[in-house]
Amino acid sequence: MSSHFPRINRRAVVLGLAGAVAAPAAVRAQPKWKPERPITIYNPFAAGGVTDIQLRFMGEKVSRLLGQPVLIEVKAGAAGTLAPAQLMSARPDGHALACMSINSLRYPHYQPVPWHPLRDFTYITGLSSYTMGIVVRADAPWKTIEDLIAAGKREPEKYTYGTSGVGGSGNLMMIEIDQATGAKFTHVPYKGGAEWMQALLAGHINFLADAAQWAPFVDNGQCRILAMATEQRIAKYPDAPTLKDRGINAIAHSPYGLVGPKDLPPAIVQAIHEAFTEATNDPGLQPLLDRFIQVPWRKNPAEYRAYAEQYFNTIKPLLIKAGLAKA
Q1: 8-state DSSP, 79
Q2: How crowded is residue 173: how many other Cβ atoms within 10 Å of its Cβ?
Q3: Residue 147: pLDDT above 80?
Q4: What are the C-alpha distances in Å from 248 to residues 26, 151, 175?
Q5: Strand 96-101's sheet: what is its strand order?
Q6: Among candidate residues 305, 301, 308, 307, the one with its CA nearest the CA of residue 270
Q7: Whole-prediction pTM
Q8: CATH for 132-246?
């Protein structure tokens, strides 16, 4: 019996159906974002410090991945909050980013600023976390943290310490120590670790209370650790006690990460996050961080924002207790 229908080419039908199924997927698939010109990352601390070194190392790797140079521009000062402030006038196109320290989540609680840390930035990726301690020159008269505290009680405000700024993690740590022990020391803020390290070695200040920019100088015998502001002793320096070991409940947590202007499109956020994640995995990075006893602080965009929201909304009571913020 003859048919009124033409003979069907089954192979053509299969291929046609496959094409119909694949077409929507092809429409949905979008090419990854690529920058059209160099990317500028604002560094919140002085040139030559560990943050600067890390950003330049990672920037070189990211430039190869994204196909444009990554430029690191120092915007030091105001306890490390000037760098993210640069983004207030930046377009949300991925070409201007900033390294944000934890100080930017504290600063608005006690200092008027023209930005809000949760409303005015897009959180992209966590980078690393500073390891904090109290360090003196090797020829200093104090051999233990108890010796230093005793001196601060005998002669209040005579002895000076350096940090990266008023209200920063080091300054906050020392305020807690003062309150816990009754000692009084004088704070001298600097723009970053490279500056306060030079000040200590030159004898302009008596000790440091900040991130481990000092570690190479401990290693070469120029400096001595009196106490670490960590939960547990550091494997590299097992003989250095923590403040908790000495009955002082002061722990300095100080992570930092990368942010962009607010309303940065998700595709750009994801591309930058992926590039910096790959740079974090580069085997050359960890030896650099090890020099300053730092570890990667891995946070994806959602995790970083959640951390920022939680910290910003819970830190104020501690700042009030430290005398930095008002109730």
Answers
A1: G
A2: 26
A3: yes
A4: 60, 16, 12
A5: 70-74, 39-43, 96-101, 254-261, 121-130, 295-296
A6: 301
A7: 0.84
A8: 3.40.190.10
Domain 39-129+254-321, CATH: 3.40.190.150
Any idea of the CA torsion for 106, 40, 55, 268, to the nearest 10 degrees?
Answer: 80
Selection from 305, 325, 300 nearest residue 315 by Cα = 325
**What percent helix, strand, coil does the chain show, rounded to 5?**
45, 20, 40
Phi, psi of 129 (to 5 degrees): -140, 135
Q: Quote the pLDDT of residue 31.
A: 65
**Where does the chain hold its CATH 3.40.190.150 domain(s)?**
39-129+254-321
Angstrom distances, CA of residue 135 to CA of 166, 239, 267: 18, 14, 44
Residues of the chain with CATH 3.40.190.10: 132-246
Mean of all residue pLDDT scores within the chain: 90
State the helix-helix crossing angle for 193-202 and 50-66, rounded to 10 degrees. Answer: 150
Place of tokens 């430290």: 322
Instruction: Give the tens place of pLDDT for each residue, 156-205.
Output: 999 999 998 888 899 999 999 999 999 999 999 998 888 999 999 999 99
Of the pLDDT bands very low, low, confident and very high (cuts 50, 70, 90), residue 29 is very low
Phi then psi for residue 117, to 5 deg, are -65, -25
Among candidates 154, 279, 152, which has minimal Cα distance to 206? 152
User: Which pair of tokens denotes residue 121?
Assistant: 């930035």
Whole-angstrom distance, CA of residue 217 vs CA of residue 88: 38
Output the six-digit token pair for 311: 């910290």
Query: Which ranges in 165-323 belong to alpha helices (H)?
Result: 169-181, 193-202, 215-219, 266-280, 285-290, 301-314, 316-321
C-alpha to C-alpha distance for 320 and 116, rounded to whole angstroms: 19
Quick check: 252 and 91 in contact, CB under 8 A?
Answer: no
Residue pointed to by tokens 């580069």: 282
> What distance in Å separates the CA atoms of residue 121 and residue 294, rounded to the nearest whole number?
25
